[in-house]
Design goal:
Layout: E1 4-6, H1 9-17, E2 22-24, E3 37-43, H2 51-61, E4 62-73, H3 75-84, H4 88-107, H5 123-132, E5 135-142, E6 145-146, E7 149-150, E8 152-159
Parallel strand pairs: 1-2, 3-4
Antiparallel strand pairs: 4-8, 5-8, 6-7
């Protein structure tokens, strides 16, 4: 059985109308049983969460041998917005995401309000979470680059 999680009641209502099983929940606190899931798909949701707590939850819900397929934003994603964004608003979004990530890396907390909504991930930081949470990296690749810097990070992980 597959199940979806989202924080948007409108998106959940759309899924329910399509007879898809979904739960209103934050990824940091999944109301799901421990070690029961055979797999996980997460496409660029982690940048909008407390990544450390979400990785703990992923490690908690996956069965041993289960795989997760994850996509993250890299630094190049936001640098592209800062340097080549089509307007001031997009450039500011890129800048505040970069500032928020730096603050998060130093303190373990996000900036408050508007400034703290998005993080970019790094391969190195993700590996620390994987080791801590009983996950191992099975496959790693990156998407396109911006000025030689990673825009998207793609990982396949496995619960050990």
């Amino acid at each position: 059985m597959a199940i979806g999680l989202d924080v948007d009641p409108g998106a959940l209502a759309d899924c329910r109308r399509a007879n898809l099983p979904v739960v209103l929940a934050m990824a940091e606190h999944m109301p799901l049983r421990t070690t029961v899931f055979d797999g996980l798909l997460c496409n660029v949701a982690i940048p909008y969460t407390d990544e450390s707590q979400v990785m703990r939850e992923i490690g908690r819900i996956l069965k041993p041998g289960a795989r997760g397929y994850l996509c993250y934003h890299g630094f190049g994603y936001f640098l592209r917005y800062v340097l080549a964004g089509p307007n001031f608003r997009v450039r500011l979004y890129g800048l505040r995401s970069m500032l928020n990530t730096g603050y998060y890396r130093l303190t373990g907390n996000r900036l408050s309000g508007f400034w703290g909504d998005t993080l970019y991930q790094t391969h190195r930081r993700l590996l620390k979470y994987y080791r801590r949470d009983g996950l191992k990296l099975v496959e790693s690749r990156t998407g396109k680059k911006f000025l030689g810097l990673t825009v998207f990070i793609y990982h396949v992980i496995e619960k050990v």
